[in-house]
């Protein structure tokens, strides 16, 4: 097991490589140092963000941080934070968030992100968009040359009403994109996956990554009736904390 502050690990022999889980934890622990007492903190969703929530709770418990209020980005995170003893609130009561800390599925060279493979993209985008600082915590495997280029999906949250019609509209939007495909996300029982907002998710796949002006792609998607939000987080991250296999950290501003 790692010591409580793994980012302070002494030099590791070259032969020792961190696992992906250890890298996530190293990035999460470093980002927790960016939180100050009295802050309203957006709490991300996913396995990397879970390490951050544990560390935040630990720092609160040992008295290093006081007066923290968390705004959870999902029901899963809400449960975790309550269990960890972090006082929670909502964007309605705290519309300005001092700092949000969350993982990502992909980070491009301009720090644009793909998020939401865990299905929480809508709440994440609202809360992280309301944040003065949005710190993304990732391991080096999340860095990509181009969004969608890793062969994994770019998710889009849509209303369930006439979902197949919305899927067709999305397919039409990208009909000239070579290697594009899209499908409804399903759960283990092959039923439509439901988000915390009771919506559905369309998974978009771009064989060569999302091409062209990302803001234009975003606008086109958001103009489709039935589309709630998509998982491309453009120009939102203020910092990226990236942990590498050798245990080192890169902090990008
Ligand atoms: C959830 C997200 C997560 O931040 C993203 O999927 C990364 O997850 P993990 O930290 O488990 O790799 O966007 O909607």
TrEMBL record:
Keyword Isomerase: yes
Domain of life, per lineage: Eukaryota
Pathway: Carbohydrate degradation; pentose phosphate pathway; D-ribose 5-phosphate from D-ribulose 5-phosphate (non-oxidative stage): step 1/1
Coiled coil feature spans: none
InterPro entries in UniProt: NagB/RpiA_transferase-like, Ribose-5P_isomerase, Ribose5P_isomerase_typA_subgr, Ribose5P_isomerase_type_A
Gene3D superfamilies assigned: 3.30.70.260, 3.40.50.1360
Catalytic activity, as annotated: aldehydo-D-ribose 5-phosphate = D-ribulose 5-phosphate
Record-level GO BP terms: pentose-phosphate shunt, non-oxidative branch
Keyword field: Isomerase
Sequence ranges of Low complexity compositional bias: 1-8
UniProt GO MF annotations: ribose-5-phosphate isomerase activity
Enzyme Commission number(s) from the entry: 5.3.1.6
UniProt cross-references to NCBIfam families, sorted A to Z: PRK00702.1, rpiA
Family classification: Belongs to the ribose 5-phosphate isomerase family.
Name of the protein in its database record: ribose-5-phosphate isomerase
């Amino acid at each position: 097991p790692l010591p409580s502050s793994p980012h302070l690990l002494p030099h590791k022999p070259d032969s020792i490589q961190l696992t992906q889980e250890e890298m996530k934890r190293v990035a999460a622990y470093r980002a927790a140092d960016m939180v100050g007492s009295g802050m309203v903190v957006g709490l991300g969703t996913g396995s990397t963000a879970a390490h951050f929530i544990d560390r935040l709770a630990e720092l609160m418990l040992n008295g290093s941080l006081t007066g923290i209020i968390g705004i959870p980005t999902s029901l899963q995170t809400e449960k975790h934070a309550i269990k960890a003893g972090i006082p929670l609130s909502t964007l309605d009561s705290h519309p300005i968030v001092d700092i949000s800390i969350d993982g990502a599925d992909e980070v491009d060279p301009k720090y644009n992100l793909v998020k939401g493979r865990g299905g929480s993209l809508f709440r994440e985008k609202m809360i992280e968009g309301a944040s003065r600082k949005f710190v993304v915590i990732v391991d080096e495997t999340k860095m990509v040359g181009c969004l969608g280029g890793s062969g994994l999906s770019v998710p889009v949250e849509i209303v369930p009403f006439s979902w197949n019609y919305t899927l067709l509209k999305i397919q039409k939007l990208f009909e000239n994109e070579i290697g594009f495909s899209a499908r409804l996300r399903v759960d283990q029982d092959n039923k439509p996956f439901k988000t915390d907002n009771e919506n559905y998710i369309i998974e978009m796949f771009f064989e060569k990554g999302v091409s062209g002006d990302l803001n234009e792609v975003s606008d086109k998607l958001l103009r489709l009736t039935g589309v709630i939000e998509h998982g491309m987080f453009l120009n939102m991250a203020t910092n990226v904390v990236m942990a590498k296999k050798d245990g080192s950290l890169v902090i990008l501003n």
